[in-house]
Design a protein that fits this description.
The complex is a heterodimer of chains A (79) and B (274). With 79 residues, chain A is mostly helical. Chain A has helices spanning 2-22, 26-46, 50-74. Chain A has 3 helices and no strands. With 274 residues, chain B is mainly α. Chain B folds into 2 domains: 2-75, no CATH class; 89-267, no CATH class. In chain B, helix 4 crosses helix 5 and helix 9 (196-220) runs antiparallel to helix 10 (241-267). Chain B is globular and about 65 Å long. The chains are: A mainly alpha (79), B mainly alpha (274). Chain A binds chain B through residues 2-3, 6, 47, 50-51, 54-55, 58-59, 62-63, 66-67, 70, 73-74, and chain B through 28-30, 90, 156, 164-166, 168-169, 172-173, 175-176, 179, 182-183, 258, 261-262, 265-266, 269, 272-274.
């Protein structure tokens, strides 16, 4: 059961990152990347690494998103 | 153009096929397959001459890679001198057995923060920005969420030696709470509450406190980062003061460093345009 959940999450992770690469709008790309990082945190939690999950959630979904949105704000939004 | 795409697709396909082919070798999650010990494989480090000495004298003769980690797992959740006196094995490894490595990681973070601040041209002043923040929804949510997140970060830091967490996640969570305030109310509001100077002080005092705890171990004991302040019972909040101090230090350092990076990048090159 745990293994099944892990596989589903990993497939979801792959799809999210694929969409993040393929989508034309960079802002959507960054937001989907944040969703992918949150999924990654859940994967780390299932793999019994709650330390890493906390850091991944805070850095990946919190701080890096702000920096990337700021970077998009100063450059172009469309690819 | 078309040819490039075909080449790229081929490279990706070959890499994907390699991954799929290697996937059969990966053990399923949670299982420990039977595999030969390193000492039984010819030509590994454990079977060479220095490896045999290490194997027989230091490790008690078993010599597999698992048995290297085994003493740490057995020793850590005990009181000194047998263990570090903390239940959290990960923090025990990070700040007890590998404290010198973790100090190196803290140095890496320090260097990164200094580089960003140097490159982004930190002037100490926020460039004039028209922004007064985002909509009332973001402001209300941020006003409620940020103090709770800060409290949670402080809890993660303080209980880093008892529950999962520690200085780094706690510091990043507090910095993320400040980032929520920054998004909701604008950079000027955030800087007027926690400015550049407290961030720099946190970064530098944290680094100094790490070194101080290490040198205190050297002065009171025998080696750098020795556990020197052990009070209380196993599982208490103030049970291992040494590691608690180190967690607080690295929490301060990470909070200051991450917030300094965010401030510098957001206020550099002509201020926030948002």
């Amino acid at each position: 059961m745990e293994s099944l959940l892990l596989n589903v999450l990993l497939i979801l992770l792959f799809l999210l990152y694929l969409v993040a690469v393929e989508v034309g709008d960079m802002l959507y790309s960054v937001l989907i990347l944040a969703a992918g990082n949150t999924t990654m945190a859940v994967v780390f939690y299932i793999m019994q690494a709650p330390d890493i999950a906390l850091t991944q959630a805070a850095v990946g979904a919190g701080v890096s998103t702000v920096l990337l949105v700021n970077a998009i704000n100063r450059t172009r939004r469309k690819e | 153009m078309m040819r490039d795409k075909i080449v790229l697709l081929l490279v990706i396909a070959v890499t994907g096929l390699l991954f799929i082919g290697l996937y059969s070798d990966v053990p399923s999650y949670g299982s420990f397959p039977e595999r030969p010990l390193d000492s039984e494989i010819e030509g590994t480090a454990f079977n060479s001459e220095p490896g045999k000495i290490l194997n027989s004298e230091v490790l008690g003769g078993s010599g597999s890679l698992q048995s290297i980690g085994q003493p740490i797992l057995e020793r850590t959740p005990q009181s000194p001198p047998d263990g570090l006196g903390i239940p959290n094995v990960v923090t025990g490894v990070l700040w007890g057995f590998r404290a010198y490595d973790t100090m190196g990681e803290a140095t890496v973070l320090f260097t990164a923060v200094v580089s960003v601040v140097l490159l982004a041209g930190h002037t100490g002043l926020v460039a004039p920005c028209k922004s007064t923040g985002m909509s009332v929804i973001v402001k209300t949510v941020g006003r409620v969420l940020a103090p709770i997140l800060m409290l949670f970060g402080a809890y993660i830091i303080m209980y880093g030696h008892l529950t999962p967490g520690g200085g780094f996640p706690g510091g990043v969570i507090i910095a993320a709470a400040m980032t929520i305030l920054l998004l909701g109310f604008g950079l000027r509001f955030a800087c007027s509450n926690v400015g550049f100077l407290p961030c720099e002080l946190g970064e530098e005092l944290g680094a100094l406190l790490i070194i101080f705890v290490g040198i205190a171990g050297l002065l009171t004991g025998t080696y750098f980062f020795q556990t020197w302040a052990y009070v209380g019972e196993l599982g208490d909040l103030f049970s291992s003061l040494n590691i608690l101090l180190l967690n607080i230090a690295v929490g301060l350092k990470v909070f200051g460093g991450v917030l300094l990076i965010v401030y510098s990048l957001l206020s550099s090159f002509g201020g926030v345009t948002e």
